[in-house]
Design a protein that fits this description.
mainly alpha; Rossmann fold; three-stranded parallel sheet; 9 helices; globular
């Protein structure tokens, strides 16, 4: 099972590349929690979210999670970590502090940079496509990679 947190999912929705998550892991389903759904419903991408939830080809499954202990993270982060721990699933999450916490709890976490490197290494995207994604993340999501990470991605 592939679980994604709000920030990771919204980044790829903003650049119109949600399909990349499905292709990278050769899956037709990704899972979000009800907390992540609630956070996404507050974001300015309602059309993209509605399309993603109604897609026949690539399904976003929403899982209801019970109470999670408050650890100083948002509801979506805590629910995503709880579900990933419970199901021993990969968690796509880019918040560094939350990802570090999740890793300490034994959860396998993949951030955006690692995900893009994975896509490049496994020939899901070309170097040129990767350059376009990096540019679009910066322009549409204000997401930037430091020079070291950018260099490793584009080498």
């Amino acid at each position: 099972m592939i679980i994604t947190d709000t920030g990771f999912l919204s980044s790829f929705m903003k650049i119109g590349r949600l399909d990349l998550i499905f292709r990278a892991f050769d899956t037709t389903r990704i899972v979000i929690t009800s907390g992540v759904l609630q956070e996404l419903e507050q974001a300015p991408m309602q059309r993209e979210l509605k399309e993603a939830l109604q897609s026949e080809e690539h399904k976003i499954i929403v899982k209801e999670i019970g109470e999670t202990p408050a650890e100083g993270f948002g509801r979506g982060e805590m629910e995503s970590m709880a579900l990933a721990a419970e199901t021993n699933s990969l968690l796509l999450m880019d918040d560094r502090k939350a990802a570090q916490y999740a890793k300490q709890k034994g959860i396998t976490v993949m951030g955006i940079a690692t995900f893009l490197l994975y896509c490049k290494t496994n020939k899901v995207i070309s170097k040129e496509d990767l350059q376009t994604i990096i540019t679009e993340l910066k322009e549409k999501d204000y997401y930037q990679f430091n020079e070291e990470v950018r260099g490793k991605l584009l080498e």
